[in-house]
Amino acid sequence: MRLWVCIALLSLALCASANRPAPYRAVVRAGQFVRDAAGGARDMYRAYMDMREANYKGADKYFHARGNYDAAKRGPGGAWAAKVIRWPFLLPHSDGRELWQSRVSGRGAEDTRADQEANAWGRSGGDPNRYRPPGLPKKY
């Protein structure tokens, strides 16, 4: 019995240390990218929902930066998700976003530029607290 346990442990150690073929490594990397991207999308969604829940005037830039920061922290997949997903409603980036802000929501190009600056700041690893308004509850 001990011999079989030793053989099993040795086999496990050899398999764990063996170099995997390139296709296997590519599949593992792709899986990690997808996992990071899904996690990044969750981070962006959580920041969006927190922004809606907080309903705090002037805090939108903070939540933009925080969502992008959390997503990009996950790795390449999260950074990709942070770049692709845009506010509001987590829709893919398009001219529709600018149309929404300028015509429907009443916010103009200046606010759009400020949002994009906060997004880029968070994605680049900048501290989201730079945009945190005074008085925002510590919960966020």
From TrEMBL:
- BP-aspect Gene Ontology terms: acute-phase response
Q: Which Pfam families match?
A: SAA (PF00277)
Signal peptide residues on this chain, from the entry's feature table: 1-18
* GO cellular component terms listed in the entry, alphabetical order: high-density lipoprotein particle
The cross-references to InterPro entries, in alphabetical order and at most eight, read: Serum_amyloid_A (IPR000096), Synovial_Prolif_Regulator (IPR052464)
SMART domains, per the entry: SAA
Alphabetically list the UniProt keywords.
Answer: Acute phase, HDL, Signal
Segments of this protein annotated with the region Disordered: 103-140
Q: Which family does it belong to?
A: Belongs to the SAA family.
Q: Output this protein's name.
A: Serum amyloid A protein
